[in-house]
Amino acid sequence: xxxxxxxxxxxxxxxxxxxxxxxxxxxxxxxxxxxxxxxxxxxxxxxxxxxxxxxxxxxxxxxxxxxxxxxxxxxxxxxxxxxx
Length: 84
Description:
It is built from 2 helices and 5 strands, in the order βαβαβββ. By secondary structure, the protein is an alpha+beta fold.
């Protein structure tokens, strides 16, 4: 099945070069793939995977190892944001 994978801010550097400009890429995933399984091959440090949304709905850290997808879902991830 296909989903859209989006990384924001400093996380875009973990995307393939051709996907960085638009900060998104289409992924073909197994139906049993979880958020954790999708993130793993990109090598993002866990401390940088801060805000995780599926279709705009927050997924807390304790559910990321079990949350699966349906066709067309959008997985979006932001790092911690600092400033003030």
